[in-house]
Amino acid sequence: MNTSIPPNWRKNFYLFLIGQLLTGVTSMIVQYAIIWYLTLETGEESVLAIATLVGMLPMAILSPFVGPFIDRMNKKFLLIFYDAIVAVIALGLFIYGINNDVYPLWMVFVTIGIRAVAQTAQMPTVQSIMPTMVPEAEITRVNGQFGIIQSLIFIVSPGIGAFMVAALPIHWVILLDVIGFILGAGMLLLVKIPEVASQGEKISVVKDALEGFNILRENKPMWKMTLIGALFMLLFMPAMSLYPLVTTKYFGGTIVHAGWVEVLFAAAMLIGSFAVGIFGKTKDRMPWIIAAYFIVGLSIGGSGFLPGNMSGFWVFLVLNVFAGIVGQIYTTMNMAITQQSFEAQYLGRVMGIVSALMSVAGPVGLIFAAPVAESIGVQNMLVIAGFGGILAACLLYFTPSVRNYDKFLQRKLENEGQ
Prior knowledge:
Pfam families: MFS_1. The chain is mainly alpha-helical. The chain contains 18 helices and no strands.
């Protein structure tokens, strides 16, 4: 995939990672602060479900169409542009918050939606950049390192967000997005991002999106893996949108306890990222991915059978640690396989389609999240999510072309490198 990696690629790549850390941590603190704000102000399943739905719909709708722009435009400019949009919205909210004590729900939802639009384009852009910056043999390992950065962001953000919401007016917390933009854009200016063959070509959004879809479908194992992942998201995301209420309404905890769940889950993801750093060069990553789905299913599903008290909550914390570790192993290895399966000049388009298929299932499930949770209880949503993980593991294992795909891919890459 990449044949012109400069000798100093490590310095260039780590500058890129630091920039993503700086902009990511401020953005995620604001994201969690908004969730804590909604939880404290309303405490309603429907509000959190709508907020999550608004956050996911842009990814489901727009993902297929951002790929052509990613493949053909200057990626450094795109990343700075995404962060600038979020910073402008944050500045507007800050000015509004100076003169008003409470944000109306519609304004919060619009903010979440605009942030989601930027995120929809940002993540495929980053994912398409990474394999062009590092040698082929290092792709899985650097994905693990990127996972470490993401885990660090998730570790510090919930606690800081909860603390800042409790200590400061929400508009001061939102101002962090502006600071993150300044820091992240400054770091990106120091980074050299390689151009790819399709950069600068004429953009035809619908045609290019269809091309990305067809390229993905032609790779039958990757197509099946994506569909199985979408099915998992359909069953998994409704429970995840209600996670704060699982802690507060079912286990009887506080927002602080809900923050602990997020922090420990992210810390477990960090452990998973280190595990990928150690085992990242394995010749067959599919057994790891299948096992990860299965363990996530057992951990999250088992949480739904715990007693609704603080004793059950502590076990819930432990089970989330297991889910966080293996979940990050799955995410990192699956992303590396995807990046190695397609040529760099098409990767943005393919990642856009993958993101859309994985994301569209989430909003469909979220439509039913609030009424179903109110009917059967938020804890039983965890059981449904757990079933989704176990089902995905079984489907991957009993589909031979998928189960053996990575061994085939590694042989193909070795032959191309000879």
